[in-house]
Amino acid sequence: MLYKLLGRSGMRVSELGLGAMTFGKEWGWGATKTESKKMFAAFADDGGNFIDTANRYTEGTSEKLVGEFISRDREHFVLATKYSLFMRRDDPNFSGNHRKNMVQSLEASLKRLGTDYVDLYWVHAWDFTTPAEEVMRALDDLVRQGKVLHIGISDTPAWIVSQANTLAELRGWASFVGLQIRYSLIDRTAEADLLPMARSFDMAVTPWSVLGAGVLTGKYLGKSKPDGRAKDGAAKDTRNLAIAKSVASVADDLDCTPSQVAISWVRQQPGVIVPLIGARNLAQLEDNLGALNVTLADDHLAQLDEASKVDLGFPHNFLSSDAIRDIVFGGTYGSIRNHRRLRSGE
Is 246 exposed, middle or buried (0-12, 13-18, 19+ CB in 10 A)? Predict the structure, then answer.
């Protein structure tokens, strides 16, 4: 396991992060404490030090188990947790991004985790209700108190993250050093704005669902209905299955598993990318960790990019067209070596 800097911070995190959403059986599909401990141990033995959980995961059990597992060497591990999702239904102040929920959520998380600080505190999802000023000032207070070392944001539009970080920098507050998003060969829409924004702000990106909700493992191949959807009714459409076939083809070439190819594709994207791997059992986790030994060649990357390409929409398609580039640059676009281009092909 190698290590990466967490965006513009100096903190070192393992090149894969362990997602702990499966720690606990409260949601009906997770792992037992015994199996969770085995997965944690395997990750740590491979050099993994970055653990990602949330106050809402398995009704708080995930945090309790993570806290217990890291207690033998708390300072070694980079511990990340989140707030925003409800912890008490039908009570408006027990959910959302606002200061009151932030403070009480962190205090409750610290108790479950058995620690007095977290290394990375995520805003879990934007509520479109709380002003960015309130969120950033409240997070800065937690950093100054020493209860939080760094802050990040998850599942939020790029324009809001940009506004929040610019505001924080202008006022001397802590700014977001990490961005957590859904990103995989199945869903590349983050390439329109979120990923270029993260590179511009030097934010580390920790993608979740890197296996496309299981589609990229290949388990649905050969199990589709005549209309192209998977027999389980999970709306695995023809496009997704075609991408899974391309992943399986590359896996055959490299003598590895489709999961390892899918994770490696994410790892090899531009910027500071730290995929979160989660599993329901030790065998799945060990297979995911095997991606560390897989490097995709340019021809394989091109094959996967072609199979999964996505329409980035306006204004990206408009601005990248030859006609508009000619008007904007007066025929000089190809002669300018612009180091600020944020996406390959721009």
Answer: buried
Q: CA 263, CA 294: separation in Å to the nearest integer?
A: 9
The CATH 3.20.20.100 portion of the chain extends over 3-297
Burial status of residue 249 (CB atoms within 10 A of its CB: 0-12, 13-18, 19 or more): middle
pLDDT digits (tens, 9 = 90+) for 83-125: 999 999 999 999 999 999 999 999 999 999 999 999 999 999 9
Across the beta sheet with 176-180, what order do the strands follow? 204-205, 176-180, 148-154, 118-123, 78-83, 50-52, 17-19, 276-277
Write down the residue that tokens 């995989």 correspond to.
184
Instruction: Round to the nearest angstrom and report the end-to-end CA distance of the chain.
Output: 32
Phi, psi of 136 (to 5 degrees): -70, -40
pLDDT tens per residue across span 153-203: 999 999 999 999 999 999 999 999 999 999 999 999 999 999 999 999 999
Catalytic residue numbers read 57
Contact predicate 123/148, CB 8 Å? no
342: tokens are 């944020």
Between CA 112 and CA 93 the distance in angstroms is 20
DSSP string, 270-331: SS-B--EE--SSHHHHHHHHGGGG----HHHHHHHHHHH-----TTHHHHTSHHHHHHHHTT
3-297: what CATH class?
Answer: alpha beta
CA distances from 177 to 151, 206, 255, 335 (A): 6, 11, 36, 34
3-state secondary structure at position 205: strand
Which residues contact residue 128 at a Cβ distance below 8 angstroms, ignoring those fewer than 6 apart?
none
Rg (CA), the chain: 21
